[in-house]
Design a protein that fits this description.
single chain, 515 residues, Immunoglobulin-like, 3 domains, 6-stranded mixed sheet
């Protein structure tokens, strides 16, 4: 038959990069790895004697990946291993079409642990642009144009992987022998970096058989596989057509072969139902429990995460995530709406479900609307400092300053003053009735004033205690009493300019206990 100078020295299916969605330890070589260090072909070990079985005919048989009359040549690697560990069908961004298929038995060179199936694949050289057609009727399980790869279910648990083609089919398509999966990619220019770890120095298609079920495929030996009535030999030849590498042959007429009944591709179905909160709920506190009941089919997959989101206006934020079910079977987590930055009013809630294959269903149970109507949280770190003076028994004015922290959106900050001791201030004060002494903008975090020491007796000789609260249109938070900063002891004296109105306040503040 003569000799072909083109060689299929190919690193064709090293889907070991993160961009190709594979798993396992990265391997520098692959199913189309050409040579071991030093440039010699990879040794496959002793070749067992090939026992040919009668060629199947009709719908149980497989044909070739090229049309009749195409000139093809087996690649130099003969039968070799494969490195694709997983395949899926990208749609856009991180969205995937269909499930991720895990492929077992890929090689892991140079460690060869696990060793992989050493004779799972065959390369067939042909002219660039040659149409690649399926070995039999089937359904596309995965189509990955970037990685030049198509995975087809040919029925009866037989899958075939096609690599190094410009992909022209999509996930879920039904294909027949007349369907073009894609065309043979040309030989790349020297020093060209191909996507997904692919390398090649000849235009060709790489095919590998797998035994598949659900979303898992196991690489199977190519030796003895019958294509169009001709068995593949252990040396990479095709019985009755070619002795192997370097010996071209013409693809015969394979009419009557390749009519297998395909197994339909099953996309994962991710769904779920809301558990809490109820739709249209009124939220009177800022801590919200979000809960859902997710589901996924087929049962070979599992739910791994439920992510809850909250939207107001044009803003959407991830609220919290649940990574396992609780004892009741629901996936739940808590979020503090004030800490999230949510405003009062209508909020839209949704959740996404992620499965063990990385598939994501966005808002499978739709959205829920709730109304956030909670008073703000209490201020924290309320501190008072004063510049104490010895006025020699004479009345004097003492500057004071309050500071606080507030982790919420509030309309107002309220400052209160109440006398110490028993909260009874003779005829001038109502027992247990602190006075509102300042109403500030909600963004305020400090307030300054003075006290006069000449009215110490008016406070029962014990001085004043100050407290700070936050308020919005819903209500007021708890008031937090200030702690002394630069000076210990109580403030003796009377607050200058105290307003005449009295605001109802829990009596416990009078004894220094925060209500």
């Amino acid at each position: 038959m003569g000799t072909v100078t083109r060689r299929a020295l190919i690193l064709g299916v090293a889907a070991i990069l993160a961009g190709c969605g594979t798993t396992g330890t990265p391997a520098p070589s692959s199913s189309d790895a050409a040579a071991s260090p030093g440039g010699s072909p990879v040794a496959l070990g002793p070749t067992p004697a090939l026992t040919l079985t009668p060629a199947p005919t009709g719908p149980s048989g497989f044909a070739f990946p090229y049309a009749a009359g195409t000139v093809a040549t087996p690649g130099d690697l003969r039968l070799h291993d494969d490195n694709f560990r997983s395949l899926y069908s990208p749609a856009s961004g991180s969205t995937r079409q269909g499930p991720t298929y895990n492929l077992v038995g890929a090689a892991d060179k140079p460690t060869a642990s696990p060793p992989g199936v050493p004779d799972a694949s065959l390369d067939l050289i042909a002219d660039a642009g040659t149409p690649v057609i399926p070995l039999a009727a089937g359904t596309v399980l995965a189509a990955w144009p970037e990685c030049q790869t198509v995975l087809v279910d040919h029925g009866r648990g037989v899958w075939v992987e096609y690599v190094h083609l410009a992909v022209s089919v999509a996930w879920g398509m039904s294909v027949t022998r007349s369907t073009v999966l894609g065309t043979v990619e040309p030989k790349p220019a020297p020093n060209t970096t191909l996507p997904c770890g692919l390398t090649s120095n000849a235009a060709h298609v790489h095919i590998a058989f797998l035994t598949g079920s659900g979303t898992t495929g196991q690489y199977a030996s190519m030796a003895g596989r019958v294509l169009c009535g001709h068995a593949v030999t252990t040396t990479g030849g095709i019985d009755g057509l070619t002795a192997g590498p370097g010996a071209p042959f013409t693809i015969p007429d394979c009419a009557g072969y390749g009519k297998s009944t395909p197994t339909p591709a099953t996309a994962p179905v991710l769904s779920g139902t809301w558990v809490a909160p109820k739709d249209s709920a009124m939220l009177s506190t800022s801590v919200l429990t979000l809960s859902a009941q997710p589901t996924v089919t087929p049962t070979t997959l599992a739910v791994t995460k439920v992510t809850f989101s909250i939207t107001w206006g044009s803003t959407t934020k991830a609220a919290c995530s649940a990574t396992k079910a609780n004892s009741g079977g629901a996936w739940s987590c808590n979020v503090d709406l004030w800490q999230l930055g949510a405003p009062l009013g209508k909020l839209t809630l949704s959740f996404d479900v992620t499965d063990s294959a990385g598939d994501v269903a966005q808002a499978p149970a739709g959205a829920r609307t709730v109304t956030f109507a909670a008073p703000p949280p209490a201020p924290t770190a309320v501190t008072i400092t004063e510049t104490w003076q010895d006025c020699g028994g004479l009345p004097c004015v003492i500057p004071i300053n309050l500071t606080w922290e507030l982790n919420s959106v509030s309309s107002q900050v309220l400052v209160y003053a109440t006398p110490m001791a028993d909260c009874t201030i003779g005829p001038w004060r109502v027992a247990g009735a602190p006075r509102l002494v300042a109403t500030l903008n909600g963004s305020a975090r400090t307030w300054s004033s003075t006290i006069s020491s000449d009215h110490a007796l008016a406070a029962g000789g014990q001085g004043w205690r100050f407290a700070v609260a936050a308020a919005n249109e819903v209500g007021r938070s708890l008031a937090v009493a200030a702690k002394h900063g630069t000076m210990s002891g109580e403030l003796a004296g009377n607050l200058e300019g105290i307003p005449p109105d009295v605001v109802g306040f829990p009596p416990s503040l009078c004894s220094g206990v925060t209500p």
